[in-house]
Write a structure and sequence with these properties.
By secondary structure, the protein is α/β, with parallel strands linked by helices. It is 32% helix and 24% strand.
Length: 213
Amino acid sequence: MPDAAPAKLTSPVIPGPAGPLEALLRSPAAPAGAALVAHPHPRLGGTMRTKVVYRTARLLSERFSLAALRFNFRGVGASAGEYDGGAGETEDLVVAAAWLRALQPAGSFVLSGFSFGSLCALRAAARLAPRALLLIGVPIDRDEPAGTIPKDTRVVWIQGDRDAFSSAARAREMARARGWTFLVVPGADHFFTGRLGEFENAAGDALAAYLPM
């Protein structure tokens, strides 16, 4: 059997609420669905090219054959607009997800966010109703995560046990109270420095319980 065709990487520009949004779309030859990955805090250097964001999009594309979109929030990179404290960025996410689902309406939809992006994903979950919500490094020591999760959405929360912005013990309690899957990568900091492979394996194995292979 010949090798599968490689995924195609394109750079779409998405019409956003505050102006055009810069994006990168990784598309398998035969997508089985779609995934969106939101990046960390714009004022702390977060972009769609942050390593965790890149690796998450690659994982979702390669392992689950999803068309994986990452984009820059307003005011980041070539995206128009200015930082809006999370409210406007959540709207950016919702619009980007709608654009993606119009492009790839069939199959599963996975919503994911890293750090600040995870807070935006949580706030948007009720409107987007993803099959799976992958939360990475939720900064609960800085912000109280808020959002309503649709009853059919499965949530996977993963972080490092040395995350400076999220107590692993408190995060585990919060996830347990909500019935979410919670995973810790031993020895990993907020950015999973030196532990990105372990992060990918753990996240992929957890998502495999909820997504067709």
